[in-house]
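Hi,

Apologies if this is the wrong queue. I'm a grad student, and the batch job for beta-N-acetylhexosaminidase from Thalassotalea profundi produced an output file that my downstream script rejects. I'm not sure whether the problem is my script or the file. Here is the sequence I used:
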Amino acid sequence: MNKHIKILILASLSTLWGCSEVAKNSSASKKSEGVIIQPITQKSIDNIAENLIVKYELISNQQKEKCDKNQQGGLCFEAQLSLTAKTKIDVANWKIFYSQIAPLHNFDSDEFVLKHINGDLHTISPSEKFSGFSKGETKVIVFRAGYWSLAESDIMPNYIITSESLTAKVIESTRAEIDQDTGLEIVPYVESYSDYQKHFQRSSADSTPWKSPRDFYKDNSKLGKELLDVSNVIIPTPKSMVIDNASAQLNLAKGLNITFNNVEPSSVHVALARLESFGIKQSKQGIPISLSLFKDKTLVNGHYQLIINEQGINIKGADMSGVFYGLQSLASLVSLDHQLVSYMTVIDEPLYEFRGMLVDTARNFRSKDFIFKLLDQMAAYKLNKLHLHMAEDEAWRLEIPGLPELTDVGSKRCFDLTEQHCLMPQLGAGVDPNSSVNGYYSVADYSEILKAATARHIQVLPSLDMPGHSRAAIKAMEARYNKYSEQEDQEKAEQYLLHDPNDLTKYSSVQFYNDNTINACQESSYAFVEKVMKEVQQIHINAGQPLTRYHIGADETAGAWLESDVCKAFIANNDKGITDMKQIGAYFIERVANMLADMGIETAGWSDGLEHTNKDNMPAVVQANAWDHLPWGAHTKVNELANRNWQVVNSTPDVTYFDFPYEADPKEHGYYWASRKTNTEKVFQFMPENLPVHAEFWLDREDNPYVADDTKQVDEQGNVISTPLEQGRKFFGLQGQLWGENLRLDTMADYKIFPRIIALAERAWHLADWAVPYNYDGFKYSQETEVFTKEMQTQRDKQWTLFANAIGQKEFPKLSLANIFYRLPTVGAVIKEGKLHANTAFPGTAIEYKEKDGKWTLYSQPVSVDGEIQLRTISVDGKRKGRTTILR
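Support response: The file is valid. Your script probably expects a header line. Output copied below for reference.
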């Protein structure tokens, strides 16, 4: 290993490990505060891991006086860690590494030192005043960290105890567990968030209600008391449906006798397999069904016609996907216990060409089986784009031939201070490189995913985020650099190097990394991009789904490169017109976009990165995922990108970020920076064609009204700041997002996606007749305007009632059959005249209740009860229970 590399690694180790006077003395006993501190051994580490009981307690989200004014705008929460020793602990040369999503501001402790390392990684180490633990002794550390903690799921598991040269171990008391009733992951060392003002409110201005069972009951009562007939409901809703004879029906239990005509059987195999899973098999004695293609070439992709009458079933599509969707609509009509379908004529086509779902497999790995199941359900609801996010700061998930370090090092998190064998355990990953949060898709795996997607008429858009969010790639290529440097092959070492080793820039990304941005000034970075893209392109070609569009990410790069000698030289000597460090990010995106165009690949990226580019320097076709927050003026940025004639895919976090909680409750899982509650009804209410109109009936993230001014805006000098959409501009699509920072299990990912994805599919496919058309002249919307009329609201709520009934009665059983771990709704309940009345957001979902010291009992109608009542929903198969709520 050359001297330069040794210095780099030693410096890195020094930063991560640190040193105290106690830590320096690891070979002999030392007296501290009257206690003999013994030399540390592996047995000592094992003892602490097994016998140290950690408890986490949130004190307040409204701590201001002790916050660090130089961090996060001076906003912080206050919490405390209680450390209790079950046995005597008389060693001190150790550190606890732990994950905390918000960076440390400061702490109160004489015996311990807390420190933010990088990203979410922090440490706790004994100070010089550490006096050890006697058996049963508890020591408390009070600390402040950035912003707020409003959900118990913020707190990461798997605190790691270690000492230099010894094997790191997870502290047993901090491991996550699975709740036996709900099947959800819980972190038992976290004390319950129970105080409205201290634990639930962001600030004194936060008006978000903490809903009780009574509140849920009131909301759910709008759905009525009786189950609706959902036999003729198709999800997503067709453009046109005419019931030809309300009393005439075909019985599909006899099976289907299929004539394929000019339809390729393999193109509809998956849809037919789904029907077969519902008990509707292919049979020569079955109902005649004719599949064919229209000769009309002007019809949009996905257009189909479904006719059911006494002669049988006829499905015609504009293309193979149209026929496929016609079969999925037939499947949608069927209930698992009711295989009769009415005579009808359906004429249908999608609202958007792009109907997508993003899955973040980088932060925490998602298994191949999870992806296959998701593809099945996306196809069932006519979604056609899987945005597969496979590279981030925390991991790289796709095998790239010729660059084994990307997966050998970058696909797993364990405990390696040098990060030459794995990445450090961000996001509570623990120390096991074989745990479910780790992994990658081999070329063979990814090829299988592509083939499965193709069979379901779904395009996979790979995403390997650049130049920000790239720490895993940077560290992997650093390991490659070190390997070839040791072999004295400097040319190969530097071939794909992604950082400038001499860069002294100090910056912090949105996720608090200080080393996660690819250096956009060095040619090796572009050589890396080209190598990766050519390999990914070849995998797609070999799998039969050519790579026509790639998502480069392109977001969140602020602050990087400022002290990079490479970048200083680049600015001084380039002929590209780059004169300022702030221009380098746009230069990277423009250059990569044109590299992709030369390869026949279209560029997609996030709006905040793309908006800084020069349109004239970009290819003709650009997809921009717009992810700005509605109360912060999202419509103005979206308008600007659409007015560039780019393909804007609405990815509005207020409603399409499925990592957010379903409801505002600390027990609900998820992040909440843009929305405290995004339930399925809210997704259904979304009008993606008209973003500013939501100011009339939605609130901001603290449940306060906001104003969305979509009129032309100019500054004091007369410069145009923003304008409405140009006449006739339309958006290209709609995409749901599942970011995975705290989703360590596939089941939890299922839980966050379903059933919200069903409403997402509805809005991506069907233009509701109650939706407010966009006003190209501009308008200023608020709670005081009534462009969204009472009549529109009534029509929307009526349609939601039918939609909710269909989910509860038809879709939940189908999801259970497909082994989907969907979220069960929270029970609403009241006591009236001594009787319990209960309901749910999805009529047809079973409810259980329990009186004090009683047994769980199935609820069917109002029943006399006494005292405190516990309530929960039950999955269709009876194996899983919803979150228990208490009615007092």
